[in-house]
Amino acid sequence: MRVAKRSLAALVIGALLVIGLLLLATEPASARTNFAFGFNLAVPLTPYPAYVYPYSPPGYYPPVPYRPVYPPCARVWVPGYYDGYGNWVFGYYRYDCGYYGY
Description:
- The chain is of the alpha+beta class.
- The chain contains 1 helix and 4 strands; from the N terminus they run αββββ.
- 24% of the residues lie in helices and 14% in strands.
- The two termini are 68 Å apart.
- The relative contact order is 0.11.
């Protein structure tokens, strides 16, 4: 399969070179025109470079220290009340972080 791809690529490149030489002879006749022709098969003729990274060296990795997880704050229900102007304020939850703040 590789040999067939390479021979096909060589054949196409050769054909393009011959066509280019034929068009090169007609260049003075078309002095004011611009003509471009591109063709891409996307068949690599050489293998792609491989970048090999070495493994990390074996060694001792200390375990991650255990830290207990505390909830940020306690949710406390504040019941509804009347404010100083006689308006009713509905009850709500608030966070009570306590004395230590966690």
